[in-house]
Amino acid sequence: MNKTLLILVGALCLFRAHAEPLNIVYIISDDHAWTDYSFMGHPQVKTPHIDQLAKESLLFKRGYVPSSLCCPSLATILTGKYPHQNKITSNDPPMPKGMARGSFQKSDAFKKGRERMNQFMDAQQTLPRILSEQGYLTLQTGKWWQGDFTRGGFTHGMTKGGRHGDAGLEIGRTTMKPIDDFLDLSIKEKKPFFVWYAPLLPHDPHTPPQRLLEKYQKLTPSIHQARYWAMIAWFDESIGQLRESLKQRNLADNTLIVYVTDNGWIQSLDAPRYAPKSKQSPYDGGLRTPILFHCPKLLKAQDAPELANSIDILPTVLSLAKIEAPKDLPGINLSDAESRGKRDHITGACFQHNAVDLDIPASSLRWRWVIQGEWKLILPSAQEKDAKPELYRILDDVTETNNLAEKESEQVEKLTKVLDRWWKPNLP
Question: Is residue 6 within 8 Å of 27, Cβ to Cβ?
């Protein structure tokens, strides 16, 4: 009798542990090169907190975002769809010719354009919308482009409608309190939670704490590089704070942490801006990012060799949370080794900073790109005047300097067909 009772109690405990909804935290760094972590091999930048997270995670060092621009990249992460599918391709709406950027952002044309972009988000089955329907509390902090946080389906948030975050941009830089308060609320209401932590870090303005700047000034003659490296260290410290907040509340064991960056950044040594072949480009300096999933009770820590794309994050998270995913998602479940093994290429597209026609994604297209095996093809649109296809052996030529397109014309033709099967833009 006692033995039977023990078995029943054990089974009940197992059922409760299994049935307990999974908490979810997204950590999204902003303008951060894929090389600039110590766990990715950088000789100067130290990132101990994210290093530890990566060590304990299902890690994809060959991760990518489809587009190397903040707004469309974040929209992809939230919706699980490519920019041409959710129609959020650019940072800003079309800008009238002859109008200065500052004047445009105060104009009616800008407001109407942003509202149209917000409507595109309204139409999507975003992760917070899906989770809210399952009884989750969902919090937006940091970067957010689509109007008030509620437009993305969040139940709670910081951004009220500013261009890319307004009050939300205080997170990580000046405070972590909104997240701490939200975690306490979830405990009080006994509800699972989702946190979108997308701070303006290491994004410019590069204004790190003096103690971190002094540390990195000793490692480089470029003040611009030192500031950028110090910003990464500052961001890493915030990850430590976030994980500690989870641990203090006994939430860590039942929380899935996802990490990705929205797009890359190669710091100019001579100016406080990005260098070529990074942000807004079709090169790995703008597109590549580590992607990781941390939940030791569900996932074995491993360095997975396969390619990953940020479109895969949503289906992976929903699978781990045992929630049915929308049927029209193009990504795969990265926690399933069989699915990873079956896919032999990933794709993406980069668009104009200011859209040409918000309702016609192809009108703003600059490049499509595909990686298959050792090869990466960058195919320019007709809008890129005088541009030619670029083909690289990406595993050996990581800086994409030796264009083999003319020598390997058959490979260009093969990969062009792969891109056309994925998305062949048709302009009216």
Answer: no
E strand residue ranges, 156-245: 156-157, 193-198
- 392-419 tens-digit pLDDT: 999 999 999 999 999 999 999 999 999 9
Among 240, 218, 238, 244, residue whose Cα is nearest residue 229: 218
From the number of C-beta atoms within 10 Å of its C-beta (0-12, 13-18, 19+), residue 11 rates as exposed
User: What is the average pLDDT across 50-79?
Assistant: 98
Of 315, 289, 232, 259, the closest CA to residue 28 belongs to: 259
Domains and CATH numbers, the chain: 21-342 (3.40.720.10)
Query: What is the secondary structure of 242-261 as a DSSP string?
Result: HHHHHHHTT-GGGEEEEEEE
β-bridge mates for residue 138, sequence order: 194
Phi, psi of 282 (to 5 degrees): -90, 10
C-alpha 38: how far from its chain's center? 19
pLDDT band of residue 98 (cuts 50, 70, 90) is confident
Does position 13 have pLDDT exceeding 80, yes or no? Answer: no
Using the structure block, give the residue that is written with the tokens 């990005």.
Answer: 274
pLDDT at 168: 94
